[in-house]
Amino acid sequence: MLPVLFAVFAAVLSATAAAILLLVRGNARAVFRRGEEGERAVAGILSALPEKFVVMNDVIVPSRTGSAQIDHVVISEYGVFVIETKNYAGILDGDASGKTWRKTLGGRAIEIRNPVMQNSSHVSALSLVLALKKELFIPLVALSPECALSERLSSSLRASGVSVVPFPSVASFVASRRPRVLSRGDVGRLCGELSRVMYRSPLARRRHLRSVARSSVRGETDYGRCPECGGKVVLVRGKAGLFLGCSNFPSCRFSRKWRNGR
């Protein structure tokens, strides 16, 4: 009798685990689809900008420690806009400089990564690969109209000068920026350089997404360890351009040529 009971218990446990796994995967796919819908909506809004604003969507570039995926980049004479899109629903609470925020919907609260800090890392990545001062970037977080900010978070964002706007206001925010800080020649050069360094191949993009999934806590990828000292391999900009070096420089002088997508 006992073996039969154990067999039944094991079967029920296995079926329950499988059901939970399917539910988790289903929720993850739903969140991913909602995120994609938000990015498409903002891309459509940005497409209405005048031609002097060059819009690039879903941009993956190398960062100092691996790679960064940026929802939208707009290059113009008024600066480089770096836009993080969040298709959230509910109420957001937290601090502009906190690592995480709290999202509440239907009485259920979950912690989410602070999109302002996330976008700050995107600005750092673009500053490195484009050799452009951070002062010339305009970070912006675009939120779904279904999302609201708590009074505490709104006050914190205003005090820190961080720009967070709803989807419909993204284009007007970009178009109203003044004064000019880049020449037309600068805009052309930056567009060409970004097109050169961004990851385009399906293989490179899949590698980035797999790496981010493996390091979801930090939300970034990496180049591995230095073969000479075991330190972290990082992306560096030198006089001759981008290359991979050891984080323990100058005690370790390991270096390797950087290749797009590798």
Care to describe what's here?
This protein has 6 helices and 12 strands. It is an alpha/beta fold and 262 residues long. A 5-stranded mixed sheet has the order 1-2-3-7-9, with helices on both faces. It has a 4-stranded mixed sheet with strand order 6-5-4-8. A hairpin with a 2-residue loop joins strand 2 and strand 3 (79-86).
Record keyword descriptors for this entry.
five-stranded mixed beta sheet; alpha/beta; single chain; four-stranded mixed beta sheet
Distance between the termini: 59 Å
CA-based shape: globular
Number of helices: 6
Multimeric state of these chains? Answer: single chain
Tell me the helix content: 25-40%
- Main sheet strand line-up: 1-2-3-7-9
**Average pLDDT for all residues:** 85
**SSE order:** HEEEEEEHEEHEHHHEEE
* Total beta strands: 12
Stretches with pLDDT under 50, minimum 5 residues: 17-28, 216-220
Integer-rounded radius of gyration: 22 Å
Largest sheet: 5 strands, mixed
Structural class: alpha/beta
Share of β-strand residues: 25-35%
What can be said about this structure in brief?
This protein is an alpha/beta fold and 262 residues long. 40% of the residues lie in helices and 27% in strands. It is built from six helices and twelve strands.
What's the helix and strand layout?
Elements: H1 2-46, E1 54-62, E2 67-76, E3 79-86, E4 90-93, E5 100-105, E6 108-113, H2 115-130, E7 137-143, E8 147-149, H3 151-160, E9 164-166, H4 170-175, H5 184-197, H6 202-214, E10 233-238, E11 241-246, E12 255-257
Parallel strand pairs: 3-7, 4-8, 7-9
Antiparallel strand pairs: 1-2, 2-3, 4-5, 5-6, 10-11, 11-12
